[in-house]
Amino acid sequence: MGHAWGFGRYGGPEVQEFFDRPDPVPGRCEVLIQVDVAGVNPLDHLLRSGLVDGLDGGRPFPRVLGMEAAGTVLARGEDVIGLEVGDAVFGFALTGGGTYAETTVLSAPNTARIPAGLSTTVAATLPVAGTTAVDVLDQLSLTPGATILVNGVGGGVGLAVARLAVARELRVIGTGSTAKREHAEAIGVRFVDYTAENVTAAARAMVPDGFDWIVDLAGGSSLRSVAPLAQDPRNVISVGDISVSDLGGRFVERRTDRESLERSARLALDGLLAPVITAVHPLSGAPAALATVENGHTAGKVVIKVT
Ligand SMILES: NC(=O)c1ccc[n+]([C@@H]2O[C@H](COP(=O)([O-])OP(=O)(O)OC[C@H]3O[C@@H](n4cnc5c(N)ncnc54)[C@H](OP(=O)(O)O)[C@@H]3O)[C@@H](O)[C@H]2O)c1
């Protein structure tokens, strides 16, 4: 039996609740883990609201929140390859187990061992934001000195994209609200504060010929206002807003397999993918942790330390 936090039906924060559940029994390709740390992501509240389908395994209510975690393998399904009981692992709960819980099941093909030297807390932030950032960089054709605008640089994915881009010797300009300036500048980003200046005018002054690439994390009207700053509309890539295709750009293609997790872990060990963890909550603080992310203005990554 383990304590968990989730929701009894689709809706807003009012449908969230703590409850106890028996430890899930791992399916053939799942591992049961003792959760040490769970990462918090915008996708969590989108799943709770019922706006996103097909990613929470269609399990009965109450469902547990959370898509990513790091912890220790307690049991494994009969078809699991390459993971053993006792291993420290990190990965995705793509089969609906939820990770804001003392124990959960992870999908084994979407789970990897935590390499020596990498902290469990950092590992827990890699499945969603870390691998997304790696996918974004993989999908841009880049030469050193290329210009990139990261729209929404201060959040979990934005800071990870910016960090990787700076390491590739790109010229990185990032947008965000005032509190994100310090985080962005600390990793070598030229920052545009959208609360204090006209973003398009400021960005155009910095890169008059237009950006080689625009990576969008903010979506909506913000995406539409920055998209014309790209030299070529096809060079606008969004991570959160599929309507980017209406502007001639494209939505990021995602990889969530073990190899991709292992690669993100190596980049983290090399210091090239160093998540900025701005808040660590206990499991009892899960409501506050998700509320921070749900308000849409998170700095870096928020995590829940369960054990
Ligand atoms: N496709 C995928 O597999 C995938 C994977 C990961 C994430 N996502 C999506 O990608 C988006 C970003 O994810 P995330 O984890 O980085 O979210 P996050 O941590 O919540 O960060 C979003 C950032 O955008 C900033 N922002 C909001 N409005 C803005 C605006 N008008 N201009 C500039 N910045 C603005 C926010 O803070 P400030 O406004 O205070 O600067 C915040 O720092 C979300 O929509 C998420 O669902 C998709």
TrEMBL record:
SUPFAM superfamilies registered for this protein in UniProt: GroES-like (SSF50129), NAD(P)-binding Rossmann-fold domains (SSF51735)
Gene3D superfamilies found in the cross-reference section: Medium-chain alcohol dehydrogenases, catalytic domain, NAD(P)-binding Rossmann-like Domain
Taxonomy, superkingdom: Bacteria
GO molecular function: oxidoreductase activity
Record-linked InterPro entries: ADH-like_N (IPR013154), ER (IPR020843), GroES-like_sf (IPR011032), NAD(P)-bd_dom_sf (IPR036291), YIM1/Zinc_Alcohol_DH_Fams (IPR050700)
PANTHER family cross-referenced by the UniProt entry: ALCOHOL DEHYDROGENASE RELATED (PTHR11695), RETICULON-4-INTERACTING PROTEIN 1, MITOCHONDRIAL (PTHR11695:SF294)
Protein name as annotated: NADP-dependent oxidoreductase
